[in-house]
Hints:
It contains 1 helix and no strands. The protein is an all-alpha fold.
Amino acid sequence: MSKKGQKVHDKKVFIPYMQNQLTLPISIESLILNDHVVRVVNKAVDQMNLEPIRGWRFY
């Protein structure tokens, strides 16, 4: 352990920058398990008639 105000090391660490790197999955859905409950909820919402509340502001 270091004492208060004491430097632990002088080494600088840089992460290489790659402009074309992909950090997010192509599809968020690929991260959700096939049997996860969110798929049931999503299917239920997709089947709802949301036309009566379209345009409402919820804030």
